[in-house]
Write a structure and sequence with these properties.
By secondary structure, the protein is an alpha/beta fold. 46% of the residues lie in helices and 10% in strands.
């Protein structure tokens, strides 16, 4: 029988997707007898991880002290728009408590939650730079310690970022493990899983992209089956880390946007109406299973350790995770639009940095850009682009060079009249040997080749390089 073009295409697709092998991965044996939390992905035995509420209530967050009149107007708008769950810090709630109670009098089913008092979370792990496995492990350890102390409903907070699929799996895995704990130890308690916004990948520059990151976080919370979902202002990193102040109109707009993100995704897009909407997705089921098994194993290991050894182990893992995240970001395997990719060259921010307990992956890059833009000397330096060939052929390499240096605030120009302190030669790879041999160097000028090669006294920039390290050298040493 002769295969048609369509048959050939289908067979090739099956080989690529390994569809013939999927069944054996789906037929996972139930290992309940050894108390391992396994999510069965076989169709007939799949576990549905139902949340404890029929629908998630709209929410808003007030985590920073603001002007009394601005708070009153923003809070009143939230109540009018149907917001039912409010997140505060203890400090903010104490400051505005009387106003909160007077404005909300007579409105039913409101919930006021203080993140640093009312929920079980591992924000100290997440904010320090820890990974999801250790965050979840510490939360479960705290949950176990509190089970016998109080019969109140447990509110469990998990930080969710813009890594969409892993965030969905993280929420599902937490519910899976809690249900497993209740089953194994015959526990009877009510709980809610709260999706908290992670600002780890949020940025100061091109701050509107934080809205898109918030959309991804809230979407993951809705699809992942969280009982409550936090939303926050996209300006939040500025209040955490800088002295920059915004107008009352900007603050009100930011709270309106954060509120409407939930409304659009939940009420208009109906993302939260289906219980465990991602059940049956092979990749998410597998990732859920992986998270659950890793956390369960870590939890078993921690039980055997002293508190001091637990803390030491967690700090070591935090250090490793931060190093890994920074390496991804600094080599552009992790892209954050507006910072290490497609920066807005016209955006200049002037502020004073403040210490923050929340680690963000982009802060080092932003600090370099802030230093360049606020320095009377560095802000005047241009990067001269020296083309050696047809511009249409070199267009991709030209874009790479511009993206590279503009990410820390330098201007990349081709104007021959500018003072040349940094020259980037752009050519095809096979031309650099000749260009190098003919290059007439000036001692006061730093030379770069846009490509990877072996040239002792000319620096190179190329894809996969540690961009942050090279730019830091240029700013702190090369141009010092």
């Amino acid at each position: 029988m002769v295969n048609t073009l369509q048959d050939q295409w289908e067979n090739e697709l099956k080989r690529e997707l390994k569809t013939d092998e999927i069944k054996k991965f789906l037929l996972k044996k139930n290992r309940d007898e050894i108390s391992k939390p396994i999510l069965l992905t076989e169709v007939n035995n799949s576990s549905t991880l139902k949340r404890s509420v029929d629908w998630q209530k709209p929410s808003q967050s007030y985590l920073h002290v603001m002007n009394d009149l601005v708070f009153e107007k923003a809070f009143s708008e939230d109540l009018e728009a149907g917001v039912k769950v409010f997140y505060f810090t203890s400090l903010v709630f104490a400051k505005f408590q009387s106003k909160i109670m007077s404005l909300s009098a007579g409105i039913d089913q409101l919930e006021f939650i203080c993140l640093d008092r009312d929920i079980i979370s591992a924000q100290e792990i997440h904010h320090a730079g820890g990974d999801s496995i250790h965050e979840m492990t510490v939360i479960l350890k705290k949950l176990i310690d509190q089970i016998d102390k109080s019969q109140e409903k447990k509110m469990i907070g998990l930080h969710v970022d813009a890594q969409f699929f892993s965030s969905i799996a993280k929420l599902r895995a937490m519910r899976l493990i809690i249900e497993k704990l209740k089953e194994i130890y015959q526990l009877n308690f009510d709980y809610e899983v709260i999706s908290l916004v992670s600002k780890r990948e949020w940025t100061l520059f091109d701050k509107e992209n934080n809205i898109l990151r918030l959309v991804a976080s809230v979407s993951a919370g809705l699809i992942g089956g969280a009982d409550k979902i936090q939303t926050i202002s996209h300006l939040s990193p500025f209040w955490d880390e800088t002295d920059l102040r915004f107008s009352d109109e900007e603050i009100l707009l930011s709270t309106r946007i954060s509120r409407n993100v939930f409304h659009v995704l939940s009420l208009e897009s109906s993302l939260g109406f289906v219980q465990d909407a991602s059940a049956g997705s092979y990749s998410i089921d597998q990732l859920t299973d992986l998270y659950a098994e890793e956390v369960w194993k870590k939890l078993g290991d921690y039980v055997l350790l002293t508190k001091a050894l637990q803390d030491e182990l967690i700090q070591e893992h935090i250090k490793q995770n931060k190093k890994s995240k920074l390496e991804q970001f600094e080599t552009k395997r992790l892209l954050l639009t507006g910072v290490n990719d497609y920066p807005n060259q016209k955006e200049v921010l002037r502020f004073q940095w403040r210490e923050s307990s929340e680690w963000r992956v982009s802060r080092g890059f932003e600090a370099l850009r802030h230093k360049v833009q606020t320095s009377p000397v560095l802000s005047k330096i241009n990067i001269f682009l020296d083309l050696k060939g047809d511009e249409s052929v070199l267009n991709a390499r030209i874009s790479f060079v511009k993206n590279y240096f503009e990410s820390v605030g330098f201007r990349v120009v081709q104007d021959e009249s500018v003072e040349k302190k940094v020259i980037v030669v752009v050519a095809e790879d096979n031309e650099y040997e000749r260009i190098y041999s003919e290059l007439q160097r000036v001692d006061s000028v730093i030379y770069y080749f846009a490509g990877k090669g072996k040239f002792s006294d000319v620096r190179q920039i190329f894809s996969g390089q540690n961009i942050f390290g090279e730019l830091r050298w240029l700013i702190e040493e090369g141009l010092a």
